[in-house]
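[agent] plan:
  1. take the single chain provided in the ticket
  2. run structure prediction with default settings
  3. attach structure tokens to the ticket
  4. add a short note for the reviewer (M.T.)
[agent] executing step 1
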Amino acid sequence: MSSEPTYRAKTGAAPDRAALAKVVARQRAELDRLRDEAAASAVVERATGALMALTGRGAEAAHEELLRRAKAAGRTPAEEAWLTLGALVPPPGQACDGPATASATAAQGAAPAEGNATGHEAAVTPATAARGVALAQEATPAQEATPAQEPAAVRESAVDAGGEAGGSVGTAAVQALFDALPGMTLLLSPLRSATGAVEDFRIDAATPQAVDPAGRRGRELIGLRILECRPTVAGEPLWQGWLHTLDTGEPYTSEPYVRLESVGGGQEPATYSVRAARLDGRLVVTWRRQDASDRQEQLLADLQRLGHLGWATWNLVTGEATWSAQVYALCDRDPGRGPLRLEELADLAVPEDGPALARAVREIRAEGKQFDVPFRIRTAAGDKHLRAVAEAEPDAAGRPVQVHGFVQDLTAQRSAELALLESEQAMVAQHGILQAERMIAGRLQHALLPLPRRPLRLAGLRVDLAYLPAQSGIHVGGDWFSAIELPDGDALFVVGDVAGHGMDAVATMAQLRFTAKGMLFTGSSLTGALTRLNTLLLHSRDTRGTATLVLARYDPERRRLAWAQAGHLPPLLLRGGEARFLDRPRGVLLGATDTPVYEEAECLLEPGDRLLLYTDGLVERPGESIELGLERLARATAAHRSDAPGSLGPLLAALLEGERRDDVCVLDVRVPTEPA
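[agent] step 2 finished; step 3 output follows
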């Protein structure tokens, strides 16, 4: 029992009841744990005594046999002891022999040579089993039923192990055994439907510590159904674990769970786990309370599993080494071969990483210098990246006598780092290629699309031009313009936008720009030129390329502007302070179809009129409809009505706030108020 510090109350002050309650609660919990351990030890001793009587072995040999059976079945020694004692109960309807017969039979069962477990077990008879139970009960007398338990005992006698009424010596013996067992344990019989499915479990035996939510304990539970005591268990993983054990015979252990227990007038959390084992078509179910050491061991196991690491210890004096099971798995080493000595650890690493690990081992052995070394090992699944961290524990003279540390698997992390590094290197290389392409395309664009330094005078009109490249990204766009005077004195205005960016866009832009000028110079109509440009684009190197285009021809004598478009935004006309967009004639973008239809429209310009031809970079915004951008352009143009040279700059500054995501190309055509 753990000791608790005492506190002297101040004179005249009441004692701290809460602190006292906590002390009492901890002492009771410690007392319960010690009582459970003592009871578990007692039942192991009883089972050992029963095996001695049945097999004729000595106490040590019988105890080792019990431990062997527990290890082979994956059970604890206490669980194996309960099952061993339970197996000694005679079947229902068969009476036990008297003491004399039992002794003679036990003597006969001891006839085979010691060590032949199969022979001993084959010689067990109902009389021998009864004698084994008697010997077990003599070792530690069972608790007698109290008067308050009599009604439950009467009810128990009506239900035998096979589920038939009429009472049974076997059922009484089983319950007598359970009365002496520690902890909370139930013996459950499955209740099946007509189809054979398990619908519920009946409680055939219960230990005195077993209790249900209604407060019924021990023998009061006999004959009740599990779903009657706890209806919600059918929807829990616990129920599925019981069914699996019942079907396969594999023991089931639940995940630890916490529940509140009443201790010292208050409630404290306690951690439990449930274990089930099959016994002759029934289940032995035990609720086991975990103490602090159990929880710490479980937390350590969870830490190793989740952190992909395991601990290791090397004794430099005795040469002994100890590895956790996780280290064997990480190092891809068979546990049957045992752990490696500290100086052999470098043998695991690949040749390239072995020297660094060997040097770290020598330094920690000689100087006690802590190390943290990454290394690789080769496995059937490929290279595995590990990390070894260790420190030395010195003796009184400062000499290292023990090394302890851990090994961690960094394969997933290292793979992610290598993939990220490769991705970054590829991005840097691609960035350099694109920067070079941008520089070449920019130079080519400036050579093909020179910007005049001052406004142009064409057919009596003043024309301002602006081209602004995109500020985001590293690509050069395909926006372009032409403003020339034709041989007959008319003025030609062209604004186009090739889809895409980079060298291909610049090449397509140059092809369309010079071809359009050549066609109109030789007398082609606006719609005819668009049709031929569409055919040219369809048969170009990039058959998927598209472009938008607007062509306008101005006749100065009649002030007539004829224009056609191929999927382009309409020109904006500012007249008398009011801005409006011209109605677009029919026209599909270039490269979209091999049977396009293009129409021509006309507009008579008046003195003082202002006409804007532009690309979509002037009005488009991410996440915004194009209509909002056009409305913004109309408002800004009406607000900036200055006729002075260079007035296009303030308009663009008002429209292009923030970073430009696309190229912008604008032709600002002014009709003088008086003839030039």
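[agent] step 4 note for reviewer: Residues 154-169+181-290 form a domain with the Beta-Lactamase fold (CATH 3.30.450.20).
[agent] ticket updated
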